[in-house]
Amino acid sequence: MEITIDRLKHSLSVARKMRALAIEDPQKYPVDPNEAYVLGLVHDIGYDFSDEQKEHAHKGGELLEAQGYKYWKEVYYHGVCQTEYDSVMLRLLNYVDMITGPTGEYVTIRERIEDIAQRYGKGSWQEEEAIKLTNRLGYKV
């Protein structure tokens, strides 16, 4: 796989929204806005190092860990519903990733899940994981 222009647009929008939320709501997101921006920008870097979509988070996290990046675990664990690791920054990333469409447009969570179902198939693992993750974040669809 590779990082496409559309995925770059998605990542840039995620970065900008993460930074904005960290500034607008420091009670809910007590994180450095600039660190949030960088995390949003690199969260999908694993696409350039993966053969399958399922691998991209782990591959990206491993690459960033080797570079000494502070938030490598957030990249490694993003996009799936899991209980191994949690942080405010991971919750922020997962939320913003779920409200950012594949070409960078901001959408509702419901619209994002509908888009995932349309692109990958109703009942696909991608759609099921998005629904589980959204529910774990406290948003019911």
Could you characterize what this model shows?
The protein is an all-alpha fold. It has one domain. Helices cover 58% and strands 0% of the residues. The chain has 7 helices and no strands. Helix 1 (5-24) runs antiparallel to helix 2 and helix 1 packs across helix 5 (88-98). The longest helix has 20 residues, at 5-24. The protein is globular, with a radius of gyration of 14 Å. 33% of the residues are buried. The model has no long low-confidence stretch (mean pLDDT 96).
Secondary structure blueprint with pairings:
Blueprint: H1 5-24, H2 33-42, H3 56-66, H4 72-77, H5 88-98, H6 109-120, H7 125-136
Helix pairs in contact: 1-2, 1-5, 6-7
Identify the notable features of this structure and list them briefly:
141 residues; mainly alpha; 7 helices; globular
In short:
With 141 residues, this protein is an all-alpha fold.
Class based on secondary structure composition and strand pairing: mainly alpha
Number of helices: 7
Count structural domains: 1
Spatial gap, N to C terminus:
30 Å
Main β sheet profile: none
Q: Which regions have little confidence, pLDDT < 50, spanning 5+ residues?
A: none
What is the CA-atom radius of gyration, in angstroms?
Answer: 14 Å
Percentage beta strand: under 5%
* Helix content percent band: 55-70%
Calculate the mean pLDDT score and round it: 96
